[in-house]
Design goal:
The chain is built from seven helices and five strands. It is of the alpha+beta class. It has a single domain, classed as Butyryl-CoA Dehydrogenase, subunit A, domain 3. The relative contact order is 0.18. Keywords: Membrane, Signal, Transmembrane, Transmembrane helix.
């Protein structure tokens, strides 16, 4: 492939990697990873609410990795309240999973920035043999893509398997019991999915630039080696 086209591919990959780093950083600081609604089941059972009356017992909840907002309704109007995971909810949430999600988000941001710098260096500079060369570019893209997948898997398990929304809704609530009425992942969660797909695309761009995948053996080298062996 001509050098000019390689520069264009590396510049494109570098810009995409930088955009992913900024997007992931914005997603970490945002509180819209999950939004949904919670039902005050205790209040609804007391008055045997159904149909339109049930809406008086449905509140809202939205949260991210560090903080969130909830509105609990038990038939007498909403009770809005803001909360933070550290240190308020640390006792009731799966702390190891939650901290792991934050850690992998940090790794994703750092290595996306590193990858963007190396892509630009390969486009406009003289790359080194290992970390600055094609093997390093594959490495940064693989790490970022893997971290994005792990973030989605861990956070999804925290929300769906460990019922994070219900734990947050019932925090310091002794009288009423809240159940999850509906919940869906918000934009910040899907931003991590886009970042993972972009880094996978970056690996394909490196391949299109003419670089073989790491640990792959070319047929030419095998043919030459076999010919040399026959000579001896």
């Amino acid at each position: 492939m001509p050098a000019q086209q390689k520069k264009m591919l590396f510049c494109t990959a570098g810009v995409l990697s930088l955009a992913c780093a900024l997007g992931a950083a914005a997603a970490v600081g945002c509180q819209l990873w999950v939004r949904g609604s919670v039902l005050c089941s205790t209040g609804a059972l007391l008055v045997n609410a159904s149909g339109p009356e049930l809406h008086k017992f449905i509140g809202d909840i939205q949260y991210g990795l560090f903080s969130g907002h909830r509105v609990r309704q038990c038939g007498l109007g909403g009770r809005p309240q803001r909360f933070s995971f550290f240190p308020d909810l640390l006792r009731i949430i799966p702390a190891s999973i939650h901290v792991s999600v934050i850690l992998f988000c940090t790794v994703l941001i750092v290595f996306a920035l590193v990858g963007a710098g190396f892509f630009m260096l390969n486009a406009f500079g003289s790359p080194y043999e290992t970390l600055h060369g094609p093997v390093g570019l594959y490495l940064w893209s693989f790490i970022c893509c893997s971290c994005g997948c792990l973030i989605m898997i861990l956070f999804s398990s925290e929300v769906k398997i460990h019922h994070l929304s219900e734990k947050i809704a019932n925090f310091k609530e002794g009288t009423f019991t809240f159940k999850t009425h509906s919940e869906q992942f918000a934009n910040s969660f899907w931003t991590i999915l886009v970042c993972s797909l972009v880094h996978f695309l970056n690996a394909l761009l490196i391949r299109f630039a003419g670089f073989e995948f790491p640990f792959s053996k070319s047929k030419d080298s095998g043919t030459i080696t076999g010919a040399v062996d026959l000579m001896y």
